[in-house]
Amino acid sequence: MIIKPKFKDFICVTAHPEGCAANVREQIDYIKANKQIEGPKKVLVIGSSTGYGLASRIATAFGAGASTIGVAFERPSTDKKLGTAGWYNSAAFERFAKEEGLYSKTVNGDAFSKEIKDKVIKLIKEDLGKVDLVVYSIASPRRTDPISGETYRSTLKPIGEAYKNKAVDFHTYKISDVEIEAATEEEVKATVKVMGGEDWRLWIDALLEAKVLEEGATTVAYSYIGSEITYPIYWNGTIGKAKEHLENTAIALNKKLKAMNGRAYVTVNKALVTQSSSAIPVVPLYMALLDKVMNEKNINEGCIEQIYRLFKTQLFGSEFKLDSRDRLRVDDFEMREDVQNEILNLWETINSENVTEVTNIEKYRRDFFKLFGFGIEGIDYEKDISPNVEFETY
Ligand code: NAD
Fold first, then answer.
1. Gap from CA of 277 to ligand 1 centroid (Å)
2. In terms of pTM, does the model score above 0.70?
3. What Rg do the C-alpha atoms of the chain give, in angstroms?
4. Is 234 a known active-site residue?
5. Separation of 87 CA from ligand 1 center, angstroms?
6. pLDDT, tens digit, for every residue of 14-54?
7. What is the 3-state secondary structure (H, E, C) of 189-246?
8. Domains and CATH numbers, the chain
9. Which of 220, 258, 391, 393 is the most buried if burial means most Cβ atoms within 10 Å?
10. Is residue 360 classed as helix, strand or coil in its secondary structure?
């Protein structure tokens, strides 16, 4: 069939298998063109199929020669629907990894469940014995508590009072004001349940109990802080509360892992176009402006560049440095004073007429399409291809 992009709200409901494979290839090529990462050899990536998790899997496999087990929640194609981008990415990753003799297996299912944790532990025991790095990179709108069976939904809302700011429709480039009502206490709690550190802790506890963590093992989870512009909707909002919980979890896990010389950190990453971040109100316009400002200063990075720098120079390198809240920071370029000052000045000037000049909104749109394998040079989008891409999952 001929596969074209098709939208529903902010999400693209189609994905192109060859385009997704090209995205994975591009990230692998970036890693291979850089110096080896010294460190992880047996890696578990929870949330491995897109965004920062996929970049983490690629960086450790192709940059450190690591065996990787990935956990993701993706859908293969069926008679009625195409597969998800994360499915096609994972299939491509496995193919490329196997071509280079790298061990890689993907567990497809709900990482929040006990069943998937048990499955992963069994796989580690059978194939790897133990793991020395656990990356936690889940972004999800809902989570079912494995003990109570209750399902919680996360929201992206301010706390205390409503938040009004400008936002962009990145299909029409129209700028309009959006107002988001303040979250209820229940919504704050539910967001912390989904995106806070509880599930990360359950994973580490389960891995510890099963004795499948190597002496000196490291675990990281990703966070975001961002700019003054997005504070009300991000850092001071419901998701920020969840990230605060994630940070506190890191501190508790770090203490727990000390007994085996292990370590646990939250890493603060840069804002980047992913399936999850494009759903946050106001943030896409901020990202389009950030991209422009950082490009002009020659300090821009994508997921793979961020994760490579994190692993190569900080986590397993000589520039390891924690901030005052025991976090690693690779959002340092985004947060530079000159970058943020320029963003604050330009933000006020953006309107529907000048948005394509003041910001990189057209590139944002291209980057968004790219997440689903569209708009990639060298791919023939008129070619009749099969949407059925099979690979073995567990
Ligand atoms: P993403 O949407 O690209 O990836 C999410 C991953 O989680 C996918 O692999 C998906 O399959 C997996 N997943 C979701 N629900 C699952 C479930 N129930 N079971 C198993 N797998 C599941 O997201 P991303 O933007 O890469 O975000 C990953 C982490 O990085 C999040 O914690 C996010 O807050 C953080 N982060 C993102 C940004 C950004 O701008 N994108 C910046 C800093 C930090």
1. 9
2. yes
3. 20
4. yes
5. 14
6. 999 999 999 999 999 999 999 999 989 999 999 999 999 99
7. HHHHHHHCCHHHHHHHHHHHHCCCEEEEEEEEEEECCCCCCCCCCCCCCHHHHHHHHH
8. 7-156+183-281+296-332 (3.40.50.720)
9. 220
10. coil
